[in-house]
Design brief:
Length: 558
């Protein structure tokens, strides 16, 4: 009997606490391919925690994988903290509430105090709870913007930032010692009655909302708050905090997309609930057209990403994360400079795949910048470094191309509540002065250059796909010197730990003309992502250049 069959038989005998898993295990009894995919590996635990397809098996998200990971984390915090505690939140995904309660049962059964939100809340609220409640760690049950078949388990350190590589390695070692069927727990209700589990008070959310409001950069400037705004939470956690902060900030003309208002783990109206893609925004755009609204905003299921569409003539145009990011950076910097509110030694942080146009804007305002690896945890890490030197007030903004923004140090992850608040304020500020966001963006292009950024993702499912991705990365490391006639002048292999950054399986090719391509496997999905950054004399010129470049890149991917 091979190892996969042994694992399958073990799960068939012991996985009795979730009827959905019992049914699925029976259904794949004679399907060797499905068995292999479910058991060929254990879900990898890393700095992003766990993420995978919901279902039965070691390579799936289920209560047994959650128990094992939670027991490993429990062992870790008990070693490092005298009186450990953990905060937990969860989003609207399938089984998110079950997974959060399962984790709480494991922690509390280990004598660790658990603080858990009464209902689903955004990722930034989890980061905020960790910091405000001074817990040893935090758990956010979410798969962010992935399709409905996914769920995940993000782990945060005591600073409210996603765990470091060193912590992830130590927790992984603890997890590897555990048999998922030997983790013993008491019931949630029993542990709650013993006061080992406690609900987070509503007052904490009020403090969070008030803290976000402090990020305004109006400094007394007048704006028209009657602007019409369409908002969609995309069936996720954003509805209550986003509508609350807009209402309390005086924006009374906010229309919520009814079809996407309520939490729904199946994401019925947007199968891929990601505000980065047009398909997720179609229903909202229809609202914006019908209501003649100038601005549509949507947040992803765990409300850490925010996407927008703005009116341009008779159409509503989606703006990319890079475009919104440079607009916000210029707005924040210009307002701070105008009102003499720029801190000493101001700092802006972005990821290596985020547009270099932001660097030009920061330089124009005398703001220093820091490039970090892909993932907002690295931006949060930079805030921590500033905090340790009592310089956190120097941080004015961080953003990444994947629609994540943060302008304050009160949390250590991207915050779509903060993003919505700032975007609406910026939009109202310019509209009051007769300027659209499209006009402002074109003004920035004329000043700093026409930058275009493109992202392509390529899926590689299963064990064979995992090996294929490794082969592709090695090819680009060692076998490519020219792409589409453009000679590579600099090849940056971040796997070597360059530029003071942690080692990461990322390659950046910089061409002689200044254009660049970044290639990396996703840390959360079976995908390779290709980021192309071009700067030319027009967007149209960049688009033509892109079509030729990506065609050759895809030949390598085959």
């Amino acid at each position: 009997m091979n190892n996969i069959e042994e694992l399958y038989q073990k799960w068939l005998r012991h996985a009795k606490d979730d009827k959905d898993l019992i049914l699925e295990l029976e259904q794949i009894k004679n399907n060797e391919n499905k068995k292999e995919d479910a058991f060929y590996r254990e879900l990898e635990f890393g700095t992003g925690g766990l993420r995978g397809v919901i279902g039965a098996g070691t390579n799936r998200m289920n209560i047994y994988v959650i128990r094992k990971a939670s027991q490993g984390l429990a062992n870790y915090v008990k070693k490092h903290y005298q009186n450990p505690s953990i905060a937990i939140s969860y989003d609207s995904r399938i089984k998110s509430d079950l997974f959060s309660r399962t984790a709480a049962e494991v922690f509390a059964s280990n004598g660790i105090k658990v603080f858990i939100y009464k209902e689903l809340e955004p990722t930034p609220c989890l980061s905020y709870a960790v910091r405000e409640l001074h817990t040893s760690a935090g758990i956010m049950v979410t798969a962010s913007h992935n399709p409905s078949k996914y769920n995940g388990y993000k782990v945060y350190g005591d600073d409210g930032c996603q765990i470091t590589t060193a912590a992830a390695k130590e927790i992984t070692e603890e997890i590897s010692k555990i048999d998922c069927f030997e983790v013993k727990t008491k019931s949630f209700e029993e542990l709650f009655n013993q006061r080992l589990i406690e609900y987070i008070d509503d007052e904490l959310m009020t403090r969070f909302i008030n803290r976000v409001k402090e990020e305004s950069v109006l400094f007394g400037d007048e704006i028209n708050r009657d602007v019409k705004i369409i908002y969609s939470p995309l069936h996720g956690t954003g509805l209550k905090p986003v509508t609350r902060i807009l209402k309390e900030s005086g924006y009374k003309n906010v229309i919520v997309v009814k079809e996407q208002e309520e939490p729904d783990g199946n994401f019925t109206t947007c199968p891929y609930p990601n505000p980065e893609i047009k398909e997720a925004m179609i229903v909202g755009i229809e609202y914006a057209k019908r209501e003649n609204a100038d601005l549509l905003i949507a947040t992803d299921p765990d409300c850490d990403r925010v996407g927008i569409a703005v009116k341009d003539g008779d159409e509503h145009v989606l703006l990319s994360g890079n475009q919104v990011g440079v607009l916000l950076l210029d707005y924040v910097c210009s307002q701070r400079e105008k009102h003499h509110k720029m801190p000493n030694n101001p700092v802006f942080v972005k990821t290596i795949v985020t547009t270099d146009m932001a660097v030009k804007i920061a330089n124009n305002y005398g703001v220093s910048h820091k490039d970090v690896l892909t993932g907002f945890k690295y931006i949060g890490e930079q805030i921590l470094f500033l905090e340790k030197n009592h310089q956190e007030t120097s941080y004015i903004l961080g953003f990444e191309e994947s629609y994540g923004y943060l302008s304050g140090s009160y949390v250590r992850d991207k915050d779509a509540v903060n993003g919505v608040f700032l975007i609406v304020e910026m939009f109202a500020f310019y509209k009051t002065r007769g300027i659209s966001l499209i006009q402002k963006l074109n003004e920035l292009y004329k000043k700093y250059g026409y930058y275009s950024n493109y992202l392509n993702s390529y899926e590689f499912e299963g064990s064979s796909g995992f090996n294929k991705m490794n082969q592709i990365m090695e090819t680009f490391r060692n076998g490519v010197s020219v792409v589409d006639g453009n000679k590579i002048s600099v090849l940056k292999d971040y796997n070597k730990g360059i530029e003071g950054l942690p080692k990461s399986n990322v390659i950046k090719m910089i061409f002689e003309n200044g254009d660049s391509i970044v290639i990396r496997p996703s840390g959360t999905e079976p995908k390779i992502k290709v980021y192309i950054s071009l700067c030319g004399d027009s967007i149209e010129t960049n688009n033509q250049k892109y079509k030729s470049l990506i065609k050759e890149i895809e030949e390598y991917l085959k």
